[in-house]
Amino acid sequence: MDVRQLSPFISVSPQLTPADVGLAASAGFKAIIGNRPDRESEDQPANDDIRAACERHGLSWHYLPVVPGQITDDDIRAFRNLLDELQGPVLAFCRTGTRSATLWALSEAAHLDADAVLRATAAAGYDLAAQRERLQAQSGMPPASQNAFGVRHDVLIVGGGAGGLAVAGSLLRRQPDLDIAVVEPRTEHYYQPGWTLVGGGVFDRRQTVRPMADVMPEQVKWYPSAAAGFEPEQQQLVLEDGERIGYRILVVAPGLALDWDAIPGLRDTLGRNGVTSNYLFDLAPYTWELIQSTRGGRALFTQPPMPIKCAGAPQKAMYLACDHWARQQSLKYIDVEFCTAGAALFGVADYVPALMDYVQKYGIKLNLQHNLVGVDGGRRCATFKVTDTEGHSREVEKPFDMLHVCPPQKAPAFISASPLADAAGWLELDPETLQHKRFGDIFGLGDAGNTPNAKTAAAVRKQAPVVAENVLRALRGEAPRAVYDGYGSCPLTVERGKIVLAEFGYGGKLQPTFPTWLVEGRQPSRLAWLLKEKLLPWVYWNAMLKGREWLAGPQLLAHSPAPHEASAACNFEERKPGT
């Protein structure tokens, strides 16, 4: 629990968990205010659970949700009224604490000097200088003569995940003195490709996380806040507290959102009743616990409709589980079913034969066009919408002893509701240059984009140098020349010690990195396993995030194309990696 005192009466904190409530009670707090709307992100505890914890520990609970970037005068008055009514000390929280600190600052502005308020928030770790004019307006003072929109950076990056930091690293390799800022609210950075191996008992989850401060480049200005909206005509990004940051070039790489609530009953039973998912850092160890404890019964592994990140991950969890059960001589007592909403086992046909060999080897029942639509954890029963070849659908219930779920996935709400989104809610990008189709000073990469590539870390590794190259050209007023060919990779862990290394680009075209005599991607390989287990994590932390583009240098068009030529993507020259 990260508590930051603003005054003896009130402190603020980033997201609380039910377990933190007991700590807050022991620290003497009497009331908790939740300023974060429920289910704002997939990793957020339910507010009802925090309320119940408050009741258990004798604290009063008050829910005052504030939409990021949209703190209204009504919100400020409601917050002030709460503080006037409550017995202190009070603890308020939101995702990072910024909204709560801003609410307090604006509610105090009527009787405290703006400088005093800003000193208090700065001492607590919240720089609210961009709120000075609003603070003065709340107090009735004339606004200061300063830029209402705050600072401006050459390059502003939304997202401190794989995409955002890889682009920052590639930009700094090319131009070390570039003015770059990153907006990222999380304090930890995750190596998500490792969670499959955590769920398979190969990795400890501590190997997949590092403090964000340790991976954020020193030359970069880090805003530990959440993005709330875009004003592309003004070249402004709006943060959760209403602060606006200007940019010359914007790079958008926020990842995607896991939509647990799209399946009724799922969120309520995650992590218990035999229901797990490798798509969450906290749940991957539970997958391994279930695999070890399951000795018989039915094990279901599900995959929703596309798009999802790492389309092979649901299968990987299943194959590793089956391999363990086979080694323990218990597989024959377990009915394993793969229930996928798709019409094929894998989207690229060249890799299906090798995967089918393992489906048959493990005795897996393959259920195509089976979409998970409900989970009853208490009954240990899953409901699927089953569609036949003629398009007719019906619902089927399946009891389970173990259920591994891949949740439906979508673009984050602040993307889908923004002017940057296409009709389906995804970031609208040119599939080759990764430039926004309507705003030339905006680029994007990673899972939130609408480019038709596999959503994998390997795709980001190839996209980041393309974006970096084109961003620098845009800063010089030149047309993009670097192009992305849709490369993605999915190391399919078919057993402990062997991987089918799927590598492909747009249209499912195979794009092997290594010669077939070294690694035949369409067949299980021990060398590919060594790459996945030993080499790729090291490459991620020590190369990709630092802008070292080994085997990932961007392809450049030999000339700057006219708009009607931009999609031709021919006559490439190869840029040397890392330059």
UniProtKB/TrEMBL annotation:
<keyword id="KW-0874">Quinone</keyword>
<dbReference type="GO" id="GO:0016787">
    <property type="term" value="F:hydrolase activity"/>
</dbReference>
<dbReference type="GO" id="GO:0070221">
    <property type="term" value="P:sulfide oxidation, using sulfide:quinone oxidoreductase"/>
</dbReference>
<dbReference type="GO" id="GO:0070224">
    <property type="term" value="F:sulfide:quinone oxidoreductase activity"/>
</dbReference>
<protein>
    <recommendedName>
        <fullName>Oxidoreductase (Flavoprotein)</fullName>
    </recommendedName>
</protein>
<feature type="domain" description="Beta-lactamase hydrolase-like protein phosphatase-like">
    <location>
        <begin position="2"/>
        <end position="110"/>
    </location>
</feature>
<keyword id="KW-0560">Oxidoreductase</keyword>
<keyword id="KW-0274">FAD</keyword>
<dbReference type="GO" id="GO:0071949">
    <property type="term" value="F:FAD binding"/>
</dbReference>
<feature type="domain" description="FAD/NAD(P)-binding">
    <location>
        <begin position="153"/>
        <end position="267"/>
    </location>
</feature>
<keyword id="KW-0809">Transit peptide</keyword>
<keyword id="KW-0285">Flavoprotein</keyword>
<dbReference type="InterPro" id="IPR015904">
    <property type="entry name" value="Sulphide_quinone_reductase"/>
</dbReference>
<dbReference type="Pfam" id="PF04273">
    <property type="entry name" value="BLH_phosphatase"/>
</dbReference>
<dbReference type="InterPro" id="IPR005939">
    <property type="entry name" value="BLH_phosphatase-like"/>
</dbReference>
<dbReference type="InterPro" id="IPR029021">
    <property type="entry name" value="Prot-tyrosine_phosphatase-like"/>
</dbReference>
<dbReference type="GO" id="GO:0048038">
    <property type="term" value="F:quinone binding"/>
</dbReference>
<dbReference type="Pfam" id="PF07992">
    <property type="entry name" value="Pyr_redox_2"/>
</dbReference>
<dbReference type="InterPro" id="IPR023753">
    <property type="entry name" value="FAD/NAD-binding_dom"/>
</dbReference>
<dbReference type="InterPro" id="IPR036188">
    <property type="entry name" value="FAD/NAD-bd_sf"/>
</dbReference>
